[in-house]
Design a protein that fits this description.
By secondary structure, the chain is of the alpha/beta class. The chain has 16 helices and 22 strands.
Length: about 475
């Protein structure tokens, strides 16, 4: 973050400086009082359990001197007890922080890139970071800071030397991406796909499409949207008139020639579940890519990232060189060897599309047995049972050796697989604990085990416990 004064912060936030010196300065914005220090702005957010305003004195003791508060009582207290504290008082501190981020970004001369999608947005963000860092001084969201709090906090990572900012944007409901796009005002936007994630909240894939397209609400004739042209919903954009320019990434036959407004991806080859190769062609370039990440789906994510780089002067050859050095830091499909088993750890979240992709990666790798441990997929609405059953059929038809389901909803996965694979190779458990207690009877040396489920199912704990059991030889789940 570039250095700003309390007066500037108040101006960015469109909120009055209630008290304190205008000239106090800051180079970071924090919502956690424990992370504040000298030259921090402490933003007091109100949560379901805690009121951030209550922690302003603690932030002061840590050296913080600029505060964005929403409590008049705490503002008065800070004024009376800490004369060198600069307090900005807003009706809503979250909205004030969002305004501050928007206006702060507007003062910086940098490329602003937004990325969203039902699945693959985090991986694509990491690929964009890899590509753009090869040519520009680049910032992007930390971890999964992709919501109404994380995106504005990401904005404050930029400073006057930043040349490109990559902002992943997540959503659960309509209107959320519009809010984030308003903050960032992206010049380039990437949409990986439109699937079924959060369909329970949005009602239909058409509504999901509308919500994802909010990312373009503030784009103009100088802006570019890069999207997956093979996605059934996004492909309709080809026939629409838009003020902004569009680039579609589409699959093609080997040697096909790309037209204006498209990039063609071909010759996708899975390298034993460890990496993928593909060819990406523009009107003027044809480039081979090697991506050291598992999953054919990642070829599309990489192609979208490379297409975005191309709009900013980064050649396909340079993008390919950058992606060849990519490491799997996204927490998706991490291959972990423990004792005599290997775990494919993909425990961050789960949707029908991402589960299918994970099963594909599982089957693409050599193993003694292919085992899928699949937990509930959430926010799928009234058709949740159908989506779970479809995954069961897909898993069975893929030829896996053992299917284990965890959770009430995931029991429908087992039902979907029933009749398509040996019934003895399908096991269902109500809870992760009940599965772990039986794991010693189910897991064998040489197994490759996919562990996949929504974050709320705590499947990361299952992966950790299985790994510990494999390392120690204890298979009773304790």
């Amino acid at each position: 973050m570039k250095e700003i004064t309390a007066a500037q912060a108040a101006s960015y936030a469109k909120a009055p400086l209630f008290c304190g010196p205008e000239e106090n300065t800051a180079v970071s914005v924090e919502r956690d009082s424990k992370k504040t220090g000298e030259k921090s702005i402490f933003v007091a957010l109100t949560g379901t359990k805690n009121d951030g305003n209550d922690f302003a004195p603690a932030a002061y003791e840590n050296g913080c001197r600029i505060f964005l508060l929403s409590s008049p009582v705490m503002a008065e207290r800070m004024k009376n007890h800490y004369e060198d504290a600069s307090v900005i008082l807003a009706e809503d501190s979250l909205q004030a922080m969002q305004r501050m981020a928007k206006n702060y970004l507007a003062d910086l001369d940098m490329i602003r890139i937004a990325v969203t999608g039902s699945v693959g947005k985090t991986s694509t963000k990491e690929m964009l970071q890899q590509i753009f860092s090869s040519s520009y001084r680049t910032i992007c969201n930390r971890e999964n800071f992709n919501n109404h709090i994380g995106v504005p906090l990401t904005a404050f990572l930029a400073d006057e030397k930043t040349q490109a900012g990559i902002f992943e944007m997540g959503m659960n409901h309509s209107g959320e991406i519009r809010l984030l796009a308003d903050i960032v005002q992206p010049q380039k936007a990437v949409i990986t796909n439109v699937g079924t994630s959060h369909i329970g909240n949005l009602g239909s894939r058409d509504n999901i499409m509308k919500a994802k397209m909010e990312i373009t609400d503030f784009m103009d004739s100088s802006s570019v949207l890069i999207y997956n042209g093979d996605n059934d919903k996004l492909s309709a954009l080809e026939h629409e008139k838009t003020e902004y320019r569009r680039i579609a990434v589409k699959s093609s036959e080997t040697g096909a020639k790309a037209k204006d407004g498209e990039l063609l991806i071909s010759d996708i080859t899975d390298e034993g579940g460890e990496a993928v190769r593909f060819i990406l062609s523009s009107e003027t370039e044809r480039q081979s890519f090697f991506l050291p990440l598992p999953g054919v789906h990642n070829a599309y994510n990489a192609a979208l990232a490379a297409a975005c780089g191309l709009t900013c002067g980064i050649s396909l050859s340079r993008a390919a060189e950058a992606l060849a050095a990519m490491e799997n830091s996204t927490g998706r499909l991490l291959s972990e060897r423990h004792g005599e088993i290997t775990i494919l750890n993909d425990t961050y979240n789960a949707s029908p599309d991402s589960v299918r992709a994970a099963i594909d990666v599982l089957k693409s790798r050599k193993a003694g047995r292919h085992v899928a441990v699949l937990a509930d997929m959430n926010e799928l609405g009234g058709d949740s049972g159908q989506y779970h059953s479809e995954i069961g059929r897909y898993a069975a038809d893929s030829g896996i050796d053992l299917l284990i389901t965890v959770g009430e909803k995931a029991a429908r996965i087992a039902e979907g697989a029933s009749g398509r694979m040996n019934e003895e190779h399908i096991r269902s458990f109500d809870t992760s604990e009940s599965f772990l207690k039986q794991s010693g009877k189910l897991i064998r040396p040489g197994d490759l085990i996919l562990i996949k489920g929504s974050h709320g199912m705590a499947m990361d704990r299952v992966a950790r416990r299985l790994a510990e059991a494999a390392e120690t030889g204890e298979w009773d789940g304790h």
